[in-house]
Structures are given as C-alpha cells and as structure tokens.
TrEMBL record:
Record-annotated site: Transition state stabilizer: 64
Top-level division of the source organism's lineage: Eukaryota
Protein's recorded name: Peroxidase
Disulfide bonds: 76-278, 155-187
Keyword Glycoprotein in annotation: yes
Domain Plant heme peroxidase family profile, first and last residues per copy: 27-282
UniProt keyword annotations, A-Z: Calcium, Disulfide bond, Glycoprotein, Heme, Hydrogen peroxide, Iron, Metal-binding, Oxidoreductase, Peroxidase, Secreted, Signal
Role description: Removal of H(2)O(2), oxidation of toxic reductants, biosynthesis and degradation of lignin, suberization, auxin catabolism, response to environmental stresses such as wounding, pathogen attack and oxidative stress. These functions might be dependent on each isozyme/isoform in each plant tissue.
GO cellular component: extracellular region
UniProt source species: Quillaja saponaria
Cleaved signal peptide residues: 1-21
Catalytic activity: 2 a phenolic donor + H2O2 = 2 a phenolic radical donor + 2 H2O
C-alpha cells in the first residue's frame, strides 16, 4: 500500500490523536481512541478495501509490515495494527479487538531489521531463535506463519529450492516435484528474481488454513514454511497437523499470537511520537515543510 493511504487515514484524525497520545503512563487498550476518533476503524477499513480493488496483495503486505513493525519498531504503529486486523478480516479470516495506544519509533534501523527478521531460507532452529529473541514461542511461530495463506512472493525468496538447494546442485527434496516444475516456468534459473507467485497455491487470496495442508503435501513455497512440517523430529509438525484439521484452532491461535506480537515492547505515554507521515519522523517532515513551504509537490513526496 502506498504511504498516501496511511497519510490519508492519519490526517482525518491527526489533531485529536496527538492529544490522546500524549497521556502519561498509558497502557494499550481497545478503547484508546473511542472519544477522540470513534470512526478510526471504519476509516482504515475503508482505505484498505479501496486499496484491495487495485492490488489484491495489499492485505498480505500490510500483515508483513505489521510483522516488521513489531520485530524492529518501524513506522505508524497503531494505524498499521488496525490495518493488519482489517486485512485479515476482509480476506475471510478472524476478527479481534485491537489493543491501541502505541506511539511511533524515532528511528528505523535497516541493519537491525536484517538481523532480527527471519529470512525465507531460515531453518526451523533459526526461526525459533528469531521468535524467541522477541519473546514469542513455537506456537506463535507456527500460528503467525499462517499469514502466508495469502499474498505473493518473489522468485529470489525461493529460487534456491528449485535448482541448487544448499549448494547440492539439486532441488529441495521437500518440495513437491510437480510444483517445482511449475515454479521453474515462473522462475528460470538465470531470470529476474522479481517475478511473483502465490504463497498459497490453493486459495491465494483467502485467509484460511490451506497454508497448513499445503505443507503436508510438500507445497510450502518458502523453505521457512516447509521447515515447519518437514524438519525431522520437529515439534511444529503436530501443530501444523492440528491447524490443518481445524481452521477454528488456527484462527484462535493466530489471534492470540497477533495480540502477543503487537505487545512486543510498545512505545506508550510520552515515548516516541505520533508521525505526521508514516515514511518519516516528524523532524524530517517539519524540515521538509520549512524547505518546501508553498510547494504543491510536497504532498506527493510524503
């Protein structure tokens, strides 16, 4: 989603949100904006719905951004948290009361993001470690990985599985051979790494439990997906089987883990800030306003 949509949603409530967000000793609560911006959820849902009309990947992209936000502290925290819940709901997934009152970080650290965020070729042990660092457990790992039930991935994130897995010169043996053949058509060995394919080959735009049944038949797209089921002796396999047999169990665990993830070291009270633009900290926005005062092009730049 372009940052314009976030700016639009924020602008409708910006004046009153700033006042609400300066409370001291603030705690996350579902009623944080009830008095100051009672239409906040409706506004954000409408923006997400509009964006989905032109790009069906938006919902999954928002979930990914929220994941980044929680693991590394980047960008517009509360708006992104609500947008993630609405994206899941609009795709047929569960709804849940969203805890609010986060403020935005004053910094964004690309190096920290590269270190903390799991890579698409992560092993199960690496995945568990990355989640444990931020206080999330194995159940959270498997439940939150289910967000890959919709969205797209670029060839560069899984092409090593098709041709030269772990420098063996052979494809990943945990990848279904028929799917491998299809993916090679989309991702030639020397072609661009930016071609897209569905993360969930069964119901690519629906939020359901098909992600897990795909893993059972070696059709997880990313290595980090298939590791949850195919790693010998993995305790995650039983969780995958449970979520395959019961979508309700998956939805229940996903909601619980999303709330847990959203509570990773949130900035509240007077910590951080409420950004005027999701792309920049307020000092940068203010500098731009001073430098380009009266310039109509400024609106499109932030």
């Amino acid at each position: 989603m372009s940052s314009f949509y976030y700016v639009l949603a924020a602008a409708l409530c910006s004046v009153i949100l700033v006042g609400e967000g300066t409370r001291t000793n603030a705690q996350l609560t579902t009623t944080f904006y009830d008095d100051t911006c009672p239409d906040l959820h409706t506004i954000i849902r409408s923006v997400v719905e509009d964006a989905l009309q032109t790009d069906p990947r938006i919902g999954a992209s928002i979930i990914r951004l929220h994941f980044h936000d929680c693991f590394v502290n980047v960008s517009c925290a509360d708006i992104l948290t609500i947008a993630a819940e609405e994206s899941v709901s609009l795709a047929g997934g569960p709804e849940w009361p969203v805890l609010l009152g986060r403020r935005d970080s004053l910094t964004a650290n690309r190096t920290l993001a590269n270190i903390n965020l799991p890579a698409p070729n992560s092993t199960l042990d690496q995945l568990k470690f990355r989640f444990s660092v931020v206080g999330l457990n194995t159940d959270d790992l498997v439940a939150l990985s289910g967000a890959h039930t919709f969205g797209r991935a670029q060839c560069r994130t899984f092409r090593n599985r098709l041709y030269n897995f772990n420098n063996t010169g052979n494809p990943d043996p945990t990848l279904d051979s028929a799917l491998q053949t299809e993916l090679r058509k989309i991702c030639p060995e020397t072609g661009p790494g930016t071609n897209l394919t569905n993360l969930d080959q069964t119901t690519p735009d629906e939020f359901d439990n098909k992600y897990y049944s795909n893993l059972q038949v070696k059709k997880g797209l990313l290595q980090s997906d298939q590791e949850l089921f195919s790693t010998p002796g993995a305790d995650t396999k039983a969780i995958v089987n449970n979520f395959t047999s019961s979508q309700d169990a998956f939805f229940y665990s996903f909601v619980k883990s999303m709330v847990r993830m959203g509570n990773i070291s949130p900035l509240t009270g007077t910590a951080g800030e409420i950004r005027l633009s999701c792309r920049r900290v307020n000092t940068q926005v203010n500098d731009d306003l001073l430098a380009f005062k009266g310039d109509d092009n400024l609106v499109s730049s932030i």
